[in-house]
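pasting for ref
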Amino acid sequence: VMMKNKVILTAHQPVYLPWLGLLHKISLADMFVYFDDVQYQTKDWNNRNKIKTDQGDIWLTVPVLSKNHFQIMLKDVVINNNLPWARKHFKSIYIAYKKTKYFDKYIGFFEDVYSKHWDKLTDINEYMLKHFMKFLNIEKPFYKLSDFGFTSAKSDLVLEMCKKMGADLYIFGIQGKNYADIEAFNNANIKVYFQDYKHPVYDQMHGAFIPYLSVIDLLFNCGEESMNVIRSGNITKEELLKSIS
């Protein structure tokens, strides 16, 4: 009897210049859903992340028009283009990484991104995430939550999505433990896995190693070795599949 291939699904909200853990999570899955249709969170990673400079780590934050942002969905968050944020971000990245080994390989991409006009936060986040996946050879079907029209929220939304998409296992981030209704997943015969990402150490510029930066820090420093670095010390897809067989 042929065993049906187990399908692994994961999802994540739009984040700006994502960290390594997100790309590891996507690499473990067979399908990825971009959670653009959930509520915007302030002081989250939706519109900011860190890079490393000779002054230590700094935040790069995309300014958003924040009127009513507690009521609005991520896909509707508008960038405040009255501020020269794009020029500033490009300049910060340029200066921070100009002496790295892989500067020439990636800087053109950022020059291109920051010279385009972006109205919606999710659009620049999606564009960049797809390119980071490409740089890391992570080839996955990429879906957007807003294209589905699901009606539930939180854990129920994830479960509804898993059922519709035929998933056998769903990968939550470690915070998922706070809201996942594990019993409901068990009843639906869908396994859950909580990703507890172990952050690797790699060669960086500018002194002592700083973890939890944007993946761009890794790319500029490690180039085509980046995916191996992301995986090091973390669960593989094979191990994950074994855990659900």
